[in-house]
Predict the structure.
Amino acid sequence: MTKKHTQIVDGNKIAKRIKGQVFKEVLALNKYEVQNAEIRPNLAILIIGENQESELYVSKKIEEAKKVGIDTHLYRFSNESLENEILEAIEVLNQDSEIDAILVQLPLPKKFNTDKIIKKIDPQKDVDCFHPDNQNKKDDKIISPVHRAVLEILKEVKFKISNKKVLIISNSKIFGKKLEKILKKKEADVKMVLSDDSNLKKEIKKADLLISATGKAHFINKDMLKDQVGIIDIGISREGDKIKGDVDDKFLGDKASFYTPVPGGVGPITVAILLKNSLELFKKNINS
Ligand code: GUN
């Protein structure tokens, strides 16, 4: 039997397609607003404390938003800011009818209560879908960008997920639990483990689809994987000026059926979906 070549998922290509749709829709919406050409989706971004990764993510979000005609509004808080100041700012943004979408870039410095801050965001403006009300909601028109990115990738590679063994490696409840739910709905046999789970290696070896989001550079290598596994690598870590994923793809050969490279895989798709979600919230806002 000839072995199939591994498909490397081009996240930039998928992102371009999604951003193209958003751009067209924003343009079309503007066309009919002759009297008020300024009507565009408005996304508020809060960045709290100093975190190099967060700065990079946020600048990418702002840059890409600009290209599709979404206006961003950046609010900076320092590590010395009071939690109340942040909560008050979110309240102002919640009340501002011109703000359609709000996101708080994570992680926050340790002194802040992340759950409390996320919970303050009006669920109707919660573009990341991190608010507990949105985590449990039935309507799935707007889902968390990173979760939607996983679904887009599975669609792109035509991965049939029902009855497949899916392993999610994540230390984040916000990310992992909801994704587990989404994929279980699609009849996958899903398991979520922490990155320090004592059975981790055994579980990885069994997986038909591996979704890893630990941020531990290249901790998964070829020998640990099942033949023809699909890999979605959500982990990002920086070593010097190199960005690395959780999977060491250098020696992957044709072991996997597909994988998402880092950089250039999940990241750009997540940003594109954030913009799509901002547009959806804008449409809901002008129709309400
Ligand atoms: N930090 C890393 N990924 C994300 C994301 O998707 N949204 C937010 N708000 N923060 C992040």
